[in-house]
Amino acid sequence: MELITSSSSLLCLENISTILSFIFFGFTLLFSLFSVLIFFLRLKPWCNCEICKSYVTASWRKDFANLCDWYTHLLKKSPTGTIQIHVLNNIITANPENVEYILKTNFHNYPKGKPFSALLGDLLGNGIFNVDGDSWIFQRKMASLELGSLSIRSYAFDLITSEIKERLFPLLSSFASNNQSLDLQDVFRRFSFDNICKFSFGLDPGCLKLSLPISQFALAFDTASKLSAERALAASPLIWRIKRFLNIGSERKLKEAIKMVDELAEEMIKQRRNVDFTNNKDLLSRFMGSVKDDKYLRDIVISFLLAGRDTVASGLTSFFWLLTQNPEVEEAIMEESDRVMGLNEENCIYEKLREMHYLNAAIYESLRLFPPIQFDSKFAQEDDILPDGTFVNKGARVTYHQYAMGRMDRIWGPDFSEFKPERWLKNGVFVAENPYKYPVFQAGFRVCLGKEMALVEMKSVALAVIRAFKVRVVDPDQAPRFSPGLTATVRGGLPVAIQRRKSS
């Protein structure tokens, strides 16, 4: 009798626990929806501008393939090159003077900010791209010292050339021989992932092998990056925070993906700690001398992994789409290549790349039209006024839009829409533009430390592929449509046809 009573009590307690869980879930969901409703209702009286109406109703989708094209349209119409989206407390600018002010003149008032750090915090932790203040200063000094050394640049170039010869060429040759089309964006993502893993961890995931294997680490990293970026699309941060607290939906998937990334990073760090890592050249080994905390070390290296993978793949994908549209540019690169490198495919060396001014100009021009990072945001610490007279209230998100800036006639002239490498050349020599007019690599105090290595990787791959193969986009009339994310990823990939050049 006592046993039956005890069992009944346990069942009763379990039922009560289940009911309470449902009540809690229902309450949090209701609270979330109520908060979002209040958010928009509270904004309605002072948010009747056409920009905010279009954003809330998503009516921009009728006329523009990409959100960044809609922003470009609005910024072109603005006399100052700046717009305000009140519904998001966001100021967006394509004004070079404002960009210089944000990134240099009043830099300390425009940090990454806690809202941004929260979005990527689970993935990047306290890595360099997700922090401000002393932690950012320490990591930047350390990274600047390492990435600026001749030995690390030589090591990076050796990794790139090895991946090109041993994996990229055999793969492209295989598709060319079988007259098969392939997704060039996927190939470049695999290439850059192999390369950055070797550079950062000393790890070879082998994503670009002929069988095109599925790497669980690459999948987990992709999922973590994508879902972290999607947090920014939520109507209110409260939504993803509640989902994370309850461990449901996208937040549960994000947690699982980050766990896999963490496990691999921890294993790599553990292996290095147990051996003499001083002779290794990868970033992980180099940073170990300065960073003793393994969690902090993981955050730093994962940040470089994120920055070095998707940006390079994105830049190369857009570059080859533009070459299909502009075959005369490809011919000019071939002519310069024959003149500087000679006809020997093995003659592509670091020193020779620096002499190829037209190739450099073509890469810069491609990044002007299709920057891998389409916009970047900071959060104002105090009330401020931008050089164009725009008032910035404390806590506002201030965004400079690289994608739009590359398409402004007031910045680049009436031929802004043309893919024209010649605009970067003076008497045949490449001349860089003002970085605040062209903030593709950021500028000022946060200018990209990996800029030179990224450019070397892009130029090495572009030149090697152009010299050996004819690459043509299957549907050249279809302009790139981008998926939401941290970097510009072409929706549906970039299907291309590959032919081996007769001369090679």
UniProtKB/TrEMBL annotation:
It holds the Pfam family p450. Gene3D superfamilies: Cytochrome P450. Signal peptide: none annotated. InterPro entries: Cyt_P450 (IPR001128), Cyt_P450_E_grp-I (IPR002401), Cyt_P450_sf (IPR036396). Heme binds at C448. Its cofactor is heme. Residues 247-281 form a coiled coil. Keywords: Coiled coil, Heme, Iron, Membrane, Metal-binding, Monooxygenase, Oxidoreductase, Transmembrane, Transmembrane helix. The keyword Iron applies. GO terms for molecular function: heme binding; iron ion binding; monooxygenase activity; oxidoreductase activity, acting on paired donors, with incorporation or reduction of molecular oxygen. The chain crosses the membrane at residues 20-41. Belongs to the cytochrome P450 family. This is Cytochrome p450. The lineage of its organism: Eukaryota, Viridiplantae, Streptophyta, Embryophyta, Tracheophyta.
